[in-house]
Structure formats: structure tokens, C-alpha cells
Amino acid sequence: MHITQLNRECLLHLFSFLDKNSRKNLAKTCHKLLEVFQDPLLWSLLNFHSPVELKKDNFLLGPALKHLSICWYSERVKMCNIEDWMKNSFQKDFCKRHENTVSDFLLDVCNRCPNLLSLTLSGCGHITDDCILQLLKNCPNLKSLKLENCVQITDHTLEAVTLHGASLRILQVDFCRNVTQAGLERVREKCPSVMLRAERSANMIPDSKPEKKLMLEKASRKLVQL
What we know:
226 residues; alpha/beta; 2 domains; 12% strand; F-box-like_dom_sf
């Protein structure tokens, strides 16, 4: 029995076990399998492990998307999470190459995926508050927002949650060092139904250069006293 003799439901089930590249390669073999590849039912969940993957044509983006994850765990992510004022010329040049990659992709999600239910971003050092604000506005059904080690996220994102996150039930801002305790308390006060987690965030030294320098000096003086 040839694979193309299977009905649509069986083919969709088989495709669901394949990664994005394998799905794309299989879709190139015949028109029927291309139609299966283009079925929205196949693209309710998308996982990416590098910003480079966002530029490929091996997936479909549309209203069927419910769950999206972009988690970059490469050693290079550390470079993007260094404060700009501490980066050397090589590091700045490296970060510039993909500075807007994730942001542009998420703006595309805003326009094409209004039914998104969950978003997970980890190590996305160039994501800004404005990008998250647009997502909250354009994806009103978003129930879970998990941000980890996204260094440009600040209390403005937390404020956006209180204004536009009516459906949100889970909010995580772990290791987002520019989030403050005051911002977290506002979320707890205004959105008591949201399960909030902010591991290490408000306890980390923020990126503001004068403030960071002052905190480092205080820490140094304490060590001297000890």
C-alpha cells in the first residue's frame, strides 16, 4: 500500500510525528502530501530552538496556531544578554545580525495568529516591551505567557498585562533582571487570578548603568568590610 492511498486523517496523524524539515521534504514529493502539509490542523503547535529557524519555510503560520515556543539555549545567547554598554565591537556586530529576527516574527504572529493561547520565550535578549504589548493586544485569548532570561523586558510589560491580559492565567518572568518588585506587586494587586512566577527577576541587578554601578560598588564595600 502506498502512503498516498491513506486517507486524510491518517496522513495528518503521520505528519504529526515528523519535525518541520521532514514535513517539508515529504510535502515536496507529490501534490497530495503538499495539501496535507498545508492543512491548518497540522500547525497548532510550533517550537523553535534558534532564531535562524524562524526564517525557514518549513512551517505555516496562521489562525490555527495555539501554542508557540521560541527557546534559545545556545552558548551564544549569553552574548545577547550582556548589557549593550558592556559589549565589545565583535559582540555588538554579532547581535546586530539577528537583532530584529524574533521581534519581526512575533509581529507577524500578531497579525496572523489571533487565536494564540500560550507563548514561551527563553533567551530572546532582543525582545522588547512593545513587542509583548502588541501580542497582548492582538491575541486576546492568550492564557499563558512565559518569559525567561529576556533581558529587555521591564515593568512596562507587567503594566501591559494589567491592561490587556484579561484572559491571562499564567505569567512567568524568570531571570528578567529589569523587572522590579514594585511591578510584580502591581500585577498581583490588579490581576489576582494570574499565577505569577518571577524567579530571581526582582533580585537581580538591573541593566541601568548608573544604578548597576552603584549596586556593584555597594556589594564591593560589603566584601571589604567582611
